[in-house]
């Protein structure tokens, strides 16, 4: 098999696969390296994925550019949501928005993660410019002119640039000794799929309460939603140890007036939540994107969109450098990408920290500030429209 490429990508998840597919359109040769990438080959159409993402307008356009959007829509599992509703449990803070009020067809799309990765994998597998290595990377080193990646079977790949898209616990980031700024959110996310008594009516709902946040992402079936319940670690442990009926009863106490009784469709999964920000997104012949570069709280559903924005800008940067006959792996040529993406990630990290801190606990002053603030935004249409446009990236 060929071992010399323009770009080698460590990580075959959503962002890594999308980057490979986008690069390949410009006759750029790409290697994808991931020991678990072949798991995306098959998709169980008779099951609902546990994890789903709120895909914004920019990510949807990126999927169209790559060439998978029509396939996703043809699956009939892409659900456009037209409304958002945010409430404070036992409080007066409220924020709502409907797409029609702003002349938009929708506010985004809820899509199962494994569906997106499945179609990206199929697209990559069929592309002659992409080689897939179902192996772990075990070493890498760079010379002035090239980067080299050694795989678990001792295959040695050569590229002009190595991209790290291998997630929050990135092997490549650690191997390159790139340090992180970290902040523990003191929350764990309990994620599952639920069937709700009331139809979701294409509304993404979020309920804040003193110990956490409960979010419902409306799926393609009228009474099915992806549940993301962020709460304190000890509470998350209790929630996952409860019987299904007791878990649903605890959920009903917080959200019953919004969605009615719930039943579990999938097992519960738990993920610790931590903010991460790599001190460097680029080095000589190296670029980090997606969760390898930054992670944020899932409360606004923007984590995966940030990753796709990293991917799109890096692809555009590489394409421009090649057109200008410049070296795609030189640090100097990647600095503009780093500056833009670090800035956008910092804005989102700061926003998530501010929102979580504001809703954490039951302090009377905080409660008054968030009630006044959220209700003011809810009533001030121009500001709300700008916030929605920013979230949708349109």
TrEMBL record:
Organism the protein comes from: Gilliamella apicola
PANTHER family: UBIQUINONE BIOSYNTHESIS MONOOXYGENASE COQ6, MITOCHONDRIAL (PTHR43876:SF7)
Cofactor entry: FAD
The keyword Transmembrane helix is assigned to this record: no
A cellular component annotation (GO) from this entry: ubiquinone biosynthesis complex
GO biological process, any: ubiquinone biosynthetic process
InterPro entries (UniProt xref): FAD-bd (IPR002938), FAD/NAD-bd_sf (IPR036188), Ubi_Hdrlase_CS (IPR018168), UbiH/COQ6 (IPR010971), UbiH/COQ6_monooxygenase (IPR051205)
Protein's name in the database: FAD-dependent 2-octaprenylphenol hydroxylase
Keywords: FAD, Flavoprotein, Monooxygenase, Oxidoreductase
Organism superkingdom: Bacteria
Subunit structure as annotated in this protein's UniProt entry: Component of the Ubi complex metabolon, which regroups five ubiquinone biosynthesis proteins (UbiE, UbiF, UbiG, UbiH and UbiI) and two accessory factors (UbiK and the lipid-binding protein UbiJ).
Pathway named in the protein's UniProt entry: Cofactor biosynthesis; ubiquinone biosynthesis
FAD-binding domain sequence ranges: 5-332
Residues annotated as signal peptide: none
Family membership noted in the UniProt record: Belongs to the UbiH/COQ6 family.
Molecular function terms from GO: 2-polyprenylphenol 6-hydroxylase activity; FAD binding
